[in-house]
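Long-time lurker. I teach an intro course on protein structure, and each term I like to show students one example going from raw sequence to a predicted 3D structure in token notation. This year I'd like something fresh instead of my usual example. Would anyone be willing to generate the tokens for the chain below so I can use it in lecture? Attribution to the forum is fine with me.
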Amino acid sequence: MSQSSLSRDAETRTHKEFRLWLTSYPSADFPSTVLQNGIKMTNEPPMGLKANMIGSYSEEPLNQQEDFFDKNTKPVIFKKLVYGLTMFHAIIL
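-- Reply from a regular --
Happy to contribute to a lecture. Here you go:
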């Protein structure tokens, strides 16, 4: 897309809900000013074992505990297995 095809009047051509998510490694072909002028967002893991465990249990499908655990034929063993895996994951993070 050439620069001449872009409109300077953004309100008439761009939908108000439009968002552009951009990720890039340093490149000679990509202008660094685009990255420097954008809004930066990061997703960092929580700090600490307890925060990591809470984070794991707050995501799908574990946050729907009743449905998720009761569907298993051996819920007691399954709960222990899930706890062990989330603990292992939290330690690795």
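Some talking points for your students: Residues 49-92 form one domain. The mean pLDDT is 76.
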